[in-house]
Input
Amino acid sequence: MRQIHFSAWLLVLFSSILQVLIFPLPGLYILSWIAFAPLIIALFRAQPVGALEVEGSIKLQPATPGQSFILAYASGVLWYAGTCYWIYNTMHQYGGLSAPFALLALFLFCLYLGLYHGIFGLLLSLMVGPGRDTRRAMVAAPFLWVAIELARTRITGFPWNLLGTSQVDNISLTRITTLTGVYGISFEIMLVNVAVAAAFLVSKKKRSPLLMASLAAAAVLQAGRLVGAPALRADRAALLVQENIPVDATWTRDAFERTLRALTDLTVKATAAASSTSPTLSTGKADLIVWPESPAPFFVSDPLFREPVSRMAGEIGSWVVTGAIASEPAAHGVRTSTVFNSAALISPLGNWTARYDKVHLVPFGEYLPFPRLFAFAGGLTKEVGEFQAGASRAPLDAGGTKLGVFICYESIFPDEVRQFAGQGAQVLVNLSNDGWYGDSGAFAQHLNQTRMRAIENDRWLLSATNTGVTASIDPYGRTVSRLPRKQRAALVAPYALTSVTTFYTRHGDWFAFLCAIISVAALLTRFALRKKVEP
Output
């Protein structure tokens, strides 16, 4: 078997850099239309044929399935290293790991999730027809990519930075997500990338027209970002409190009471100030107060936390949602020996009326998968929480207003968030502690993914975070108002209620599953044709 040509490795490196640049913090979203084209070209021009052409260049042919896996796998590892580099700091600074072990954790993470890129390359190579005909593979590529994204979401449970998220600011293009979810945009982006790649795989005579047509299509689709949408009427306002509590704070009783007093005072004063200046507060007070997921030891059953929050709710006369830790189950039959990462609902009378327990926990943050396997990471195992997963995504009822409350990491799962809207949530509320990310690009990546959930479900979304970004997001995914990061402050966040149900809210990931079915059918057909050709 011939070795992979050096030019293919250069194309893989170039593609990986482009893939990193399209997500925050660089956020060069316009590059998404060509980011994967170099990788596809590399897969189809990887092996030297062996003969030199007259002009001295080497003729190249598609890589073998094994070579395609290696090339795409390398791209995936580099992409994860470039976009999820923040894992190192999280593990080192907050996870208790030494620098070498934190670096090892990041490396293993990239090696694991990079497999999805590798599988994409492998499957694409298997689609190459007789005589190294790449046309069938080109047609299949967008379907294969969406199927891989679905697998990343459902199997591994880490759909961080799905390709379509890069176009979250493209209002015209993102309307498709109300039908297909974010996967529909991923499909369109990959389709254009395939067309760009194809221009470099055909004869020079056909190259220019095909390349111009591909880039024109990209320009038309990208132009949707220049198309605005009318401002949406917001007839309510919530007060989102950005606590700005250090993740690694040391807690004594005095520090706890001082912090809690500062937060309640801030909330009461901000509500009073806003009631006289905000036209949205038609009732004279905020409809809803939201405190985020917090690194502070706020326990639902602790009177030192419970009583001040109840007094605050009664003084303001508004419903309050607060992140807290619960030590007893919200649903009958769940074991009481574990704790829950929760969002508690307090009535205007100060009564604790309902609770949402986080369903999708963060591996290595809220629970440790395969504890024996990771026994070497002693510092990490001490820091990881031992939370129990919740059992329901039912909205919380705040006096007839249905709140779809989900916590932090859950916002990156399209199908899970849409279940809140599907069960009647009229506004989405995300509580998050993004302090773990530091000043890396993770906070902006997380915000973009959260914004996409608002678009898919055509809902206003209130994002309350510990360190930022705390914001009000409209159904077009636009950030209507926000607070500066890393400040203790309160945001008057306009919003409105809606009971509209999008096609995606009703039917979930149907488009992604359809792409997976088409991919499987195409692969089976390809294998069947190959057997007929073989003697």
In short: The radius of gyration is 25 Å. The longest strand covers residues 319-326. Confidence is low (pLDDT under 50) at residues 51-56. The chain has 18 helices and 14 strands.
